[in-house]
Design goal:
GO molecular function: DNA binding; DNA-binding transcription factor activity
InterPro entries: GntR_C, TF_FadR/GntR_C, Tscrpt_reg_HTH_GntR, WH-like_DNA-bd_sf, WH_DNA-bd_sf
CATH class of the largest domain: Mainly Alpha
Shape: globular
Distance between the termini: 28 Å
Strand order of the largest sheet: 1-2
CATH superfamily of the largest domain: GntR ligand-binding domain-like
Structural class: mainly alpha
Keywords: DNA-binding, Transcription, Transcription regulation
Protein name: HTH gntR-type domain-containing protein
Radius of gyration: 18 Å
Mean pLDDT: 86
Organism: Achromobacter kerstersii
Largest sheet: 2 strands, antiparallel
Number of strands: 2
Length: about 260
Amino acid sequence: MTAHAIVYAPIGQGTRSDQVVERLSNAIVAGLLHADEQLPNENELSRLMGVSPVTVREALNTLRARQLIDTRRGRNGGSFVCPVPADMLRDRHPLRLATSGDLADLGELHCALISHSARLASQRSTPDEHQRLAQQIDLFEAAADPQARAQADMRCLLMLASHAQSARLANQELEVQAEWAPLAASLYQDDSLHADAVAAYRRLQEALTQGDEAASGERAQDMIGAMTDCLLEHKLRLDALGGQPTPQPTASPPPTR
């Protein structure tokens, strides 16, 4: 599962073009979509995101007006991501735009979703699935830049949800990640936080392998809870300093049990 699957996941029925704009602009500003990257065409975006072509067209027009994408003509033309100026990174970063209440609510939802997935996965996943998750955690540990770390983290979470053997849980996790992934990328500039997150995954992996349902749920909940606390602390620092989103954490996330 790639970052593109998260960015272009269905956003639900009855949504307006401003929700498509929010999804894509957050992905661009957070670096999940890179400068000069080509977006899918209108029909493909409509299919992937579950909205009408008219809604997609309106959203792309808004993104062009905000200078987040541009349109190129010709044989290899289409909509391409623009480089993001420093002032836009500061003013439009999703962590700055979200309220503390929104972050707390999102963290609580994510905790509930991942902890329940972990409990089910501890009972339902196979030895081969345990091995694949361990390999994905290895890739997360090896990732060197914030965007690669965030994407590897999201793959770990999606894999965990899929190992619960519930299509509904996996789809809900994909929906949550559309909001979570751009926020997580802003934290993974910090090497110590990344190392703590890897260690938390290792402890969770141990509980899953042992088939310990209670410990799996608790460790998954603690892991997402620690990330939520870091997001809230980072937002407070950004709001106080009014600066660009470069984290300087004062403390590591609390250890998981």
